[in-house]
From TrEMBL:
Taxonomic superkingdom: Eukaryota
GO cellular component: exocytic vesicle; plasma membrane
Name this protein carries in UniProt: Synaptotagmin-like protein 2
Species classification: Eukaryota, Metazoa, Chordata, Craniata, Vertebrata
Keywords: Cell membrane, Exocytosis, Membrane, Repeat
Subcellular location: Cell membrane
Length: 358
């Protein structure tokens, strides 16, 4: 039934204790370091002010260095966020769509107390020209808030396939309101087929191939979560030859090497079949309310791996062992899938879930 099976022991005890201030901040730092850049993609306040004003920028592609360059010059007549003080602290942020996480965020410096900021900065992306031509540039302007609740001031989206690359001059563009697709993160990344199962403490697992990973056919001393990653369909094609993909798995809040598992790489295939099973033990039934299984799909390259999409299986409460966490953000489909597993002990629950920006 499986190409590979991995068994990982996962202990929750340290998270049940009330941590000191020092250990708590260390714990959260380790969690945010894994997925903080991805989580920030859709963070912010989209509705507090109306988009207005214009932005001046130019686009260029440096053939020699294989570099896409966005020259952000300035903005005019931006919305005022703090009306009492008549103040906005704007900066410009760019992404390449449809995969914001793959190429990452670029942003300018923050200009304080102005609605007419001047930047004269170049935002750079190392990317092949033929890959760039299937992307869209999303350029947005934001007010920087010291508490992290940044306010959206407007955006523009450009289809780079139809861009006139002989035009290297600075031009003015009107800023538009946030599109619904951007706010909701609606961009097709593919669909993962998988099955999950919970084996409670004291019950005997039914899958024969896992017995070789256990100390004989004995009842497990603690519960187990079994994750069977079957296949993924319709992945983003980043190169003409396809995509070299693999799946990473963590059980959050643990982001240590003990929790980390991955499948083999399937090359040149946008519909990879992994057929990979992972077993995490150390689970007690009450842990299922506070843990989250994060499965992410990545494109493998020599220098770096690029995020393609992922899912998070949990209750989506925003809390883990009483601590507020960003990653406990499961969608309704993901929550329903996890709940069905919790209610049907020792049974494989099959699912087909869309990948998303985490």
């Amino acid at each position: 039934e499986s190409d590979t099976a991995s068994e990982i022991s996962f202990q929750f005890n340290k998270h049940k204790k009330t941590p000191s201030i020092g250990s708590h901040s260390s714990d959260m730092a380790s969690v945010s370091s894994v997925s903080g850049s991805v989580l920030s993609v859709y963070s912010g306040d989209f509705g507090s002010v109306d988009a207005q004003g214009t932005v001046e920028f130019a686009l260029d592609y440096d053939e020699k260095n294989r570099e896409f360059q966005v020259h952000v010059s300035q903005c005019k007549d931006l919305a005022v966020v703090d009306e009492k003080k008549g103040r906005s602290d704007p900066y410009v942020k760019t992404y390449l769509l449809p995969d914001k996480a793959r190429m990452g965020k670029r942003k300018t410096s923050v200009k304080k107390r102005t609605v007419n900021p001047i930047y004269n900065e170049v935002l750079r992306y190392k990317i092949e020209k033929m890959v760039l031509l299937i992307q869209k540039l999303n350029l947005s302007v934001w007010h920087n808030d010291p508490l992290g609740r940044n306010s959206f001031l407007g955006e523009i989206e450009i289809d780079l396939a139809s861009w006139d690359w002989s035009n290297r001059k600075l031009n003015w563009y009107p800023l538009k309101p946030r599109s619904l697709s951007a706010v909701n993160g609606v961009d097709h990344r593919g669909v993962m087929s998988l099955s999950i199962k919970y084996v409670p403490p004291g019950s005997l697992g039914k899958v024969v191939f896992l017995l070789s990973y256990m100390a004989g056919p004995k009842n497990p001393p603690s519960g187990e979560v079994h994750i069977w990653v079957k296949d993924v369909k319709d992945l983003l094609q980043l190169r003409p030859s396809g995509v070299d993909s693999f799946v990473k798995c963590y059980v959050l809040p643990d982001t240590s090497k003990k929790s980390y598992q991955k499948t083999r790489v399937i090359k040149r295939d946008t519909n990879p079949v992994f057929n990979h099973t992972i077993v995490y033990d150390g689970f007690h039934t009450e842990d299922l309310k506070d843990a989250c299984v994060e499965l992410t799909v990545w494109d493998h390259e020599k220098l770096t791996n690029h995020f393609l999409g992922g899912i998070r299986l949990g209750l989506g409460t925003g809390l883990s062992y009483g601590i507020s966490v960003d990653w406990m953000d499961s969608t309704q489909e993901e929550v329903a899938f996890w709940q069905e597993m919790m209610l049907a002990a020792n049974e494989w629950i099959e699912g087909l879930l869309p990948l998303r920006s985490l």
